[in-house]
Amino acid sequence: MKTKYHQIALSLVLALSAVSSVNARGIEPPPAMTTQSPTSLEQIIAIALSNDASRAQLIAQSNATLSSGQAKATLMDPTIKLGVGGMPVDSFRLDQDPMSNISLGVMQKFDRGDTIELQQTQAKQQAEVVLQQADSRAQDITTTVTALWLELGYNQKVNVLLNRQKQWLEQLITSLDSNYSLGLSESQDVISAQLKLSQLEQKLVSNQQMQAKISAQLSEWLGSNWLEQTNQILASNQLHWDNLESVLAHAKDAQARYQLLLKHPAIKAIDSSLASAETQVSIAEEAYAPQFGVEVMYAHRQANNMRGEPAPDMVSAYLTMDIPLFTGSKQDKALEAAQYQVGAAKSQRDAWLYRMEAQLSALLSDRQHIQQRITHYTNHLLKQARAQRDAIERGYQTNRAGFSDVVTSSITEISLELERERLITDLNLTNNQIASLVGIYQSADYSLSRR
Questions:
Q1: Is the whole model's pTM more than 0.90, yes or no?
Q2: Percentage of the chain with pLDDT > 70?
Q3: What are the sequence ranges of the domains in the chain?
């Protein structure tokens, strides 16, 4: 019986060495993952930004808001008055009565106080609100596309690791089949290995499904042609975050992080909205000032005066002024509404900053703990799993460990590698969200090269 087990062990040496060579490399990327991707993340982000209809809509809306506001922030159109006056009804002749005339007048009203200048300022502020929303949309797209890229890279790496395990199981099954036909292996070992292979194939199908789903999500910005090129894209679940590390190194206290949040497009949009509301208060205050108007009229007379001489033409000029005497139901209410709007904008700004501060603190905490877990996986769990696998392989060859122990140790190691890759992906996803909050993606020189 001992000789029989030695023969089984000898026949499985090649299969066991296969998993050793595969797993010894740990989570190092395969050669295919280190080749240059035909499309980089930066290129994909640029394409996504140029194809995003929502961002284009916001930019057009900003231009429309500016033009509309500037159109309103102008003097009212002058009024031209043309007519006849003092015409006798018995003859309807202009040369019969000296009072008869043909008159042409021009009237122009002026806005109250500095209303026009304030309206021009407000138009720029309102346009800036929408433009900042477009910038916020661009930042959201960058964050979303980067997250999808990382998830795609993770699933591609999982696919590689699972295929390695599949290759080992196939070699193992081939060896077991040969030994079983010679009566050197048990049928349950063959069936167990085949079951593990079927389960692994199911995981591979699920992995392909997830990759297809992520690619479909990216097609929102990259178009349907993207789906045909997905197989050519080699993503990564790790990126270089040098800019982020530099920013965080100089923002270790809460006040420094608060200053970073103030540069976020969403906060800038609220700041512009607050400035617009404050300008509206100034406009409402100008409503208490009188509104002036000028009217000039020229009257041409064709009749003679009482001395028989041609009656001279006449010129009239008027200065008009309306005085807001009853302000309780109009000006006061308009000013009150504008002041409430300022308070609402300030509260909105505070709420956003509190929320973003909490998000940033939570993300920084997650980042620290994920880094600790990755270190633990690298320095302890994976090393222990490899040591356990090696010990079980040696025990199996000397008939001191069972076949199920060999398979279990291999699956345990690959599972730990997958868990570590998941943590690495989560770390990069966390960095991605932090970068979005602290304004890394607003820098013109930011780079997200893969590791």
A1: no
A2: 86
A3: 2-75+113-289+324-442, 80-109+290-322
